[in-house]
Amino acid sequence: MNLILIIVLVAAILFIGFTIVHLYNNLVSLRNRVKNSYAQIEVQLKRRNDLIPNLVETVKGYASHEKGVLEEVTKARSSVMNASNIAETTAADNQLTGALKSLFAVAENYPELKANSNFQQLQTELTETEDKIAYSRQFYNDVVYKYNNACEQFPSNMFARLFNFKEAEFYQAPEGETEVPEVKF
To answer: What's the predicted TM-score (pTM) here?
Structure first.
């Protein structure tokens, strides 16, 4: 009888030990996926930042009197490059997106610029990069969702608190983009 009790007790201890290791490793894996997915956003932001100087120079040649728009794009690009956390990156990224919209609106006034093959190529690459950034943001938020659930749901929440796993921040949509646009004819 004592032998059976010892075997059951050892099996229970091993089961609990494996469960703790599994929960901890799952939290570590999810936290690392959050870091990796944020790094993917940064890769795409860097790609966009690398395209912008060429785009600005191309526009400068055609629309030199649009200095304010060009300076706004350059300043916003610098803010993205100097951001040090997700909140700063989000704000700077949103500022740059707005500045690029203004730049493309200015380009609409210059038919010869719109017809320039270099400008068209840069615009296409920038559009593709924007799509990749949007996908990276979505993927990041999906991973944050899973990680935060693991940090909050029982029983992994006990180990999350015990081992100091903190919830991650979601990547937020720019202000004004969540509102329904007003359409008038």
So the answer is: 0.74
